[in-house]
Automatic annotation (TrEMBL):
It comes from the Eukaryota. This is Uncharacterized protein. InterPro entries: MMADHC (IPR019362). It comes from Cirrhinus mrigala.
């Protein structure tokens, strides 16, 4: 259940406060007022594929000029 996951992983939240609000789970960063986007990505793409390299902030091509 989500409650047991929250209780088991309290030490592994990477600086986020996680609150169970009955109908949803709220993830709040400890630095109030900072822009933070939390994402969980589940994929079967190889970690060295072009898209995964880009998502990790690695630029593998000369086309990347963003």
């Amino acid at each position: 259940t989500p409650d047991s996951i929250l209780q088991q992983d309290v030490e592994h939240h990477a600086g986020f406060h996680i609150e169970d609000l009955a109908s949803c789970t709220l993830i709040r960063h400890v630095f109030k007022g900072t822009s933070t986007f939390v994402l969980t990505l589940i994929t079967n793409a190889p970690s060295n594929s072009l898209i995964m390299e880009k998502l990790q902030g690695h630029s593998g091509t000369s086309e990347d000029k963003d």
